[in-house]
Structure formats: structure tokens, C-alpha cells
Specification:
Structural class: mainly beta
Number of strands: 36
Helix content: under 10%
Distance between the termini: 37 Å
Largest sheet: 7 strands, antiparallel
Number of helices: 5
Strand content: over 45%
Shape: globular
């Protein structure tokens, strides 16, 4: 994975400025069309079932970053819900469990395609399951458009079927392939042609569109403290014990769960009771798991991350058996809400099987317990599982405004230095200034002092945050300029993502 200091061209001033660091996950920089076609596999049911075609090539003229972009010419059939895809299979699995936000550039040559086409992407993982994000209005933008996808916006792909199940939660620490798809939302008899370009896929560990925090870190002072907090579920299905371990992804402690199962489709594990907690506004959980290669995968093991409400109603997210046998730390992402279902299954499904439990939909505003449960899915195969759990995180969708003061500057040549301060956003911050506009006292931090140039001029001060967002402070240096009172600045790119109208401040 390459560390990229992304450079963007600001056409209005015709100079390059330095952007925030990001991980470049796919640059689409190919020396030839054959190199592009050797990397991306073209497919989709519109091609295999109908008369559609998809042709991809490296394009050096329509580029957002680097030397080239990937051009896709899709001659679609006009049959509703059929699609074409491009898939890149990684030589070795990629650890994308650290990312909470993605950005990429998409170029559409015809905004009229928005009434017919949509795009979405999948991240396949080592279990065969996938995460996805679908954008139903992505073709409405002509020319280059930068799309931002927060982890809280993604869902387990309920349409991906593997090992007898739909939609199990896969492992973002082991992404095996990325797939981009264009689907026909509506049917038209004549079909059509769409030309689009992809470029500059980046990953960010921080996000300005959601807030994540830790629900439990398992850093207990002693085994007694842990066993007082987690209680075993007694069952005739087998035996289970827990221990405190220093095998930890975060370098501290983890919960070591040992399960010996003798009967299938019966859950054993541990329960953590908690004060009634309102999770109705939460978007996802992220759980770190370390498996045991000696686990009996023939028994079709399954891990269930379970929520229980005050009415004893339960819902659980399924984690595929590969997580229980994979000897490395895995970031299991479990969305609380998904927009798509298949086979009647969501990411979290209602427990309607256990006697004595309410079978109504779980009340996320009244959660009183979480459970770590394991089971086997094949009769006649007793199994022993040894699994480590480290840090249960959760997140909720909320825009963090990029706020600074002042929002504009009008100053006289060679005037005294003026402070410019960011007091809301996601740091750390990097600062830059147009050549000839003056100087900044620093290029990092939450506040800098701006000293104006000695001659009349105009330009911008730029602030880059840790999530790939940019804000500008327009500056006018003029002999007749009067100092302007500081004003809060609400970054325009956030106004459409927030629950309030910030248009008065843009």
C-alpha cells in the first residue's frame, strides 16, 4: 500500500497545492490498455445473458490524478436490474480494516444516464462475503465528481451467497477483491451507451461524517474482574470458559474464549449485562477477532454477535466460519441498518428460535446485554474453538463541521499578522497559502498567523484536514481594505450532509 501525498490542481489560480496524506488504494495508473485489462476482469449478467458489452482502457486525457484513469464504455441492453462489472483481485489480501472513509473520482459524460443507471461497489473478503455501497443518483453529475463513502454508509451485501448463507459479516482486514458495477435501474427497449471514468481511490483512517468510539476494550485488571462482567451461558451443547489474554490487536488485553461444542445449532458463549442503552442512533459495530487454525471447519462453525433488549428479544449478526479459524486479527464490520435484503435476511436478524424469548423486532433503544456466542452448523461433528476478542467499537453517522474564523480576510499591505483558527473539524490540519499572498507562521496546527504581502493582491489560505476535506479563506490585500470582523466558516461540502441548513454561512 503506497502512502500518497495527493496533489490537486486548483484551476482558478493555476498552481498545485499540497493536500492531506491519504492511503492510495487504487490509482488506475496503467501504462497501456493491455495492462488495464490484465488487472480488471470485465463481467456481469448483462454481458453473459444479453447482448451488452463493456470495454475498458487506460485513458491519459481525462485524468483526476496520476498518469491515467480507467475508462469504461458500457453498451447496455436496456433490461432492468441487469449490470456490468469490473473486478480487481488482489495478489494478497489487503488490510482495509483501519479505514473509516473512502474517496474516489468518477467522471460521467452524460448526466441523462441518471434516469437509467446507478453504480455501486463491493469489497470482497476472505470469507467470500462482501460489503457494498450503492449510489442511485451517481450518474446525475457530469464531468469529474469526487464521491465520499463513510463506513457508516456501507452495508453487508445481503445478495452475496456463500456457504449456505446470505449476508454474513465479512472481515475488512482481509479484502481480496474490489468490484465496481453499473446497473440499469429502469428498462428501455433500445438500451444505450455510457462512457465513464474512475480514478484516485483513497482510504482514510478518520472520517468527518461519523463518530466512532469504544464500547468495550477488555482491559480488565484481573480474570476475576472479567468473569464478574461476563457470565457463561449454560447449555447442554457443550462447555465454555474465558480467560484474560495479552494476545491483543491493540497491544493490551483481549478476551480468550474457549468453546467445546457437542451438539449443533445450539449456542454457547458469554453474556455481558449493561445498563439500558439506547443504540437506535448507532450505525455499526466493529469487532476484532483472532481465530484458531485448529478449529474444525467441517462442523461449519458460526459466531453470533448478539444484542438483547429489555423484553428479552434478541437479534444477532452472523460471522462466517473463516473468522474462527483465521490465525490473525480481523476487523469484523456489522452495520446495524441495511437497505438491502435477500433471502429474508438483514445483517442483524431476529432470534425467533429460542424458547421463552420475545419474537417481536428488537427494541434498539432498550438494549440490556450483548453476547459472544458460538455454534456448529453440521450434526455429528463435535468441535473445539479457541477465539480471541479485542475491542468492540461502534459508530454513528453525524457530520463534523469544518469551522474556522475568520471566513474571509481583507487587509492592508504589510499589516500586522492576523490569526486564523480552526475550532471544529477532524485534525491534524495542514495549511498552505497562494504564492505572493504573504506568509503563514506555521503549516500545521489548529491556528496560524497570517502576515499580508507588501503589495495589493488576492488569493487564498488553504486548510486540509485528516479526512481529505479542504477549506479556503479568501484573502484580499488592498490599500483601502478595512479589517473584517472574524466570522465562523461552515465548509460548503458539509451542508448537504448535515441535518441543518447551513446555507446562510456559505
Amino acid at each position: 500500500m503506497n502512502k500518497l501525498k495527493v496533489m490537486f490542481l486548483l484551476a482558478a489560480i493555476s498552481v498545485f497545492v499540497t493536500f492531506a496524506y491519504a492511503d492510495l488504494l487504487e490509482g488506475f495508473n496503467y501504462a497501456s490498455n493491455s495492462a488495464a485489462n490484465a488487472t480488471w476482469i470485465v463481467g456481469g449478467n448483462d454481458l453473459t445473458t444479453n447482448t451488452a458489452t463493456m470495454v475498458i482502457s487506460a485513458d491519459t486525457t481525462v485524468v483526476a490524478e496520476g498518469n491515467s484513469s480507467l475508462r469504461m464504455i458500457y453498451k447496455y441492453s436496456g433490461n432492468q436490474w441487469y449490470e456490468a462489472s469490473i473486478t480487481k483481485v488482489f495478489p494478497t489480501p489487503q488490510n482495509w480494516g483501519i479505514y473509516n472513509k473512502y474517496k474516489f473520482n468518477f467522471y460521467n459524460t452524460n448526466a441523462g444516464d441518471s434516469s437509467r443507471l446507478m453504480w455501486y461497489f463491493r469489497l470482497y473478503t476472505d470469507s467470500g462475503y462482501a460489503y457494498r455501497y450503492a449510489n442511485y443518483g451517481g450518474f446525475a453529475y457530469p464531468g469529474w465528481h469526487e464521491f465520499t463513502v463513510d463506513l457508516a454508509m456501507m452495508s453487508t451485501d445481503a445478495w452475496v451467497y456463500n456457504n449456505g448463507q446470505y449476508g454474513s459479516c465479512p472481515n475488512l482486514s482481509s479484502v481480496t477483491a474490489i468490484q465496481f458495477l453499473i446497473q440499469q435501474q429502469t428498462g428501455i427497449a433500445s438500451g444505450g451507451v455510457s462512457t465513464t471514468y474512475l480514478d484516485n481511490w483513497r482510504g482514510f483512517t478518520k472520517s468527518n461524517l461519523s463518530i466512532g468510539t469504544t464500547l468495550m476494550d477488555f482491559n480488565y485488571a484481573s480474570v476475576d474482574a472479567m468473569t464478574a462482567d461476563w457470565k457463561a451461558n449454560t447449555s447442554s451443547a457443550g462447555t465454555t470458559t474465558i480467560a484474560l489474554s495479552t494476545t491483543s490487536y491493540f497491544g493490551d488485553k483481549s478476551l480468550d474464549l474457549y468453546s467445546n461444542l457437542t451438539y449443533y445449532w445450539t449456542n454457547i458463549g458469554y453474556t455481558h449485562s449493561m445498563p439500558t442503552t439506547n443504540m437506535s442512533g448507532w450505525a455499526y459495530f466493529k469487532l476484532w477477532i483472532y481465530g484458531d487454525p485448529a478449529a474444525n471447519t467441517t462442523a461449519n462453525p458460526l459466531f453470533l454477535f448478539t444484542l438483547e433488549d429489555a423484553n428479552l428479544s434478541q437479534a444477532w449478526a452472523k460471522v462466517a466460519m473463516v473468522a474462527l479459524s483465521h490465525p490473525e486479527w480481523q476487523a469484523i464490520y456489522m452495520p446495524l441498518y441495511v437497505g438491502d435484503t435477500a433471502g429474508g435476511v438483514n445483517t442483524f436478524i431476529q432470534n425467533t428460535w429460542d424458547p421463552g424469548r420475545a419474537t417481536t423486532s428488537i427494541d434498539l433503544s432498550k438494549i440490556i446485554a450483548i453476547q459472544l456466542l458460538e455454534q456448529t452448523g453440521t450434526n455429528g461433528y463435535p468441535a473445539v474453538y479457541h477465539t480471541y476478542f479485542d475491542e468492540i467499537d461502534y459508530g454513528w453517522a453525524t457530520a463534523i463541521p469544518f469551522i474556522m474564523t475568520p471566513n474571509v480576510l481583507a487587509v492592508r499591505p504589510s499589516a500586522s499578522a492576523v490569526p486564523v483558527t480552526v475550532y471544529s473539524g477532524v485534525g491534524p490540519y495542514t495549511w498552505a497559502i497562494d504564492p505572493g499572498l504573504g506568509t503563514l507562521s506555521a503549516t500545521s496546527g489548529t491556528s496560524v498567523n497570517y502576515t499580508p504581502a507588501s503589495v495589493a493582491t488576492t488569493g487564498n489560505i488553504y486548510i486540509y484536514d485528516a479526512t481529505g476535506e479542504t477549506a479556503t479563506v479568501p484573502v484580499t490585500v488592498a490599500a483601502t481594505a478595512a479589517p473584517m470582523a472574524p466570522e465562523a466558516f461552515y465548509h460548503p461540502s458539509l451542508s448537504s450532509k448535515m441535518g441543518k441548513d447551513w446555507s446562510l454561512f456559505e
